[in-house]
Fold this sequence. Notes:
mainly alpha, 122 residues
Amino acid sequence: xxxxxxxxxxxxxxxxxxxxxxxxxxxxxxxxxxxxxxxxxxxxxxxxxxxxxxxxxxxxxxxxxxxxxxxxxxxxxxxxxxxxxxxxxxxxxxxxxxxxxxxxxxxxxxxxxxxxxxxxxx
Length: 122
């Protein structure tokens, strides 16, 4: 069960790295691993049988450290063994053409050339 849940975490991390990039990958891996591990432990502790409940504070700390280490190792594996072309894509946002820029330029608004007017009137 742990292997399957960590596989889901790895898929989520690959998707996240594809969207946001690989900068600061250790921090992203640690945060994602901690958040996913804590969520999984919380969900599994809600079951009537097979509870994942820490017996003392050392067990709880070891769960947290294990989740941090798992997130770091998963992020490291993704950056080392992953296909680099997946992570270098940039998502195009609001690509403007020259015509759009021309119509919104302060000197040329809506087809009217505004060079004749003083700057403070524009």
